[in-house]
User: Fold these one by one.
Assistant:
Number 1:
Amino acid sequence: MLGNLNHVAIAVPDLQAASAIYANKLGAKVSAPLALPEHGVTTVFIELPNTKLELMEPLGENSPIAKFLERNPEGGVHHLCFEVDDIEQAQIALQAQGVRILGSGGIRMGAHDKPVLFLHPKDFCATLIELEQK
Ligand code: CO
């Protein structure tokens, strides 16, 4: 089922400070910030030869990463995103195994305008998993 690692998402309390750390300490090429109000985050991307890092800062009142940052005030790895060839098949196969899907139980449009599913961290070694249609 699993394809490439599309991105590793890191929640941060201060996007500008986090971008500067990656740019200055690691020489990373960091994109301009992109506000995604419908997803409750502002993000920057760091393109790597084989994948991407996504730094995310909360945006607005009900950001889905607000609780994570309450528990991890300095930020931390928030989720891993793997590509799948067929997200509907993936959903069927996972639900058949009792895997819990977050949100209202289904596929939705992700932050990169592709269909995604989020899988419950309790079913994956305490790691939030995002699956994205390739
Ligand atoms: Co993601």
Number 2:
Amino acid sequence: MTGISAGKRSLLGVFGGTFDPVHRGHVAVADALMGALPLSGIVFVPAARPPHRPAPCADAGHRLAMLRLALSNDPRFAIDETEYQREGPSYMADTLAILRSRRAQPLALILGADAVVGLPTWHRWRRILGLAHIIIVSRPGCGDRPPEWVRPHLVDSGGELLGADCGRALLFTASTRPESATALRQALATGAAPEAWLPPEVSAYIETHGLYRRSSCHDQG
Ligand code: ATP
């Protein structure tokens, strides 16, 4: 699945997303987590058919290609294509079950503070905490108080995540990142590409393939 080796006492980060497109915020968050927590690596899991949101703008192949460019063979990061290989909606609970069956290492699902609010609407969402820990990353405009249901699961440090296989939650509130794929798509549609938010290779790919032009995307109205 990944070239990431499982450290003796370490977690495998799982960073799911639509990545429509991947942006510097995603990569910076992954980088910061690697520097601060006992993670042996982070597996990015692009959602082929995300069930909890409108259909992505770019097709699954383009989103995967951009993710590959953004991660540029950094050995700390890998891409898992599990959700591209199975039929039907890309449910995270199913994906985590597959990842767990492949590795003995505890998993830590990485969620932005916006995403964790929506988690109770996800398919079999309580199962997710039976398969993984969650790491909640702060995001501008999302406040710093986690939803009520998170509180019984909270621990104070990354080290405490290692004390169990799953079911714990950690708030990660290091420097927040302003990037958002929605804002990027809207800016790209008007031709005002915010270069600082995109890895240059991803920016070039978007240009070459004519992605995120007004006529081709649902949320650029
Ligand atoms: P969109 O605006 O389309 O929802 P996004 O920028 O949130 O896109 P996603 O691919 O949906 O990107 O995000 C994947 C995960 O990364 C989600 O858990 C999301 O909360 C998190 N995330 C995205 N951008 C940031 C950011 N700037 N800071 C912290 N977390 C982020």
